[in-house]
Amino acid sequence: MAQKTTKGKKKEKIITPSGRVYITAGMNNTIITVTDSEGNTLFTASSGSAGFKGSRKSTPYASTKAAEIAGNAASKAGVRDVSVYLKGAGLGRISSIKALKTVGLNVVSISDLTPIPHNGCRPEKKRRV
Q1: Sorted alphabetically, which keywords does the UniProt record give (predicted)?
Q2: Is the entire prediction scored with pTM above 0.70?
């Protein structure tokens, strides 16, 4: 016997005009996450999702394209003012912030959350080529 299932109405996201942008700039990829002011994820993009593969993912141009994708989606949804939180030492740090500004988002603050060891783990042995 097949039972009919009724679909409920899809809950719409209520998007506030201010939000946060988390930029994780690794050595191989750059991930951009747009959240609301409470930290709930709204939009994400990365250099890989922007269509880049291999060593081209780590370039500043790839992170610019990823930031444009995430920024366009956020600005269409109604996000205007953003606080930027950077993490990592990759090449796409500065270029992704510039891309967010060109999309039309107002960057209110920039803070660096890169983890820095206080002489924690032992470093890897020197690489021999």
Answers
A1: Ribonucleoprotein, Ribosomal protein, RNA-binding, rRNA-binding
A2: yes
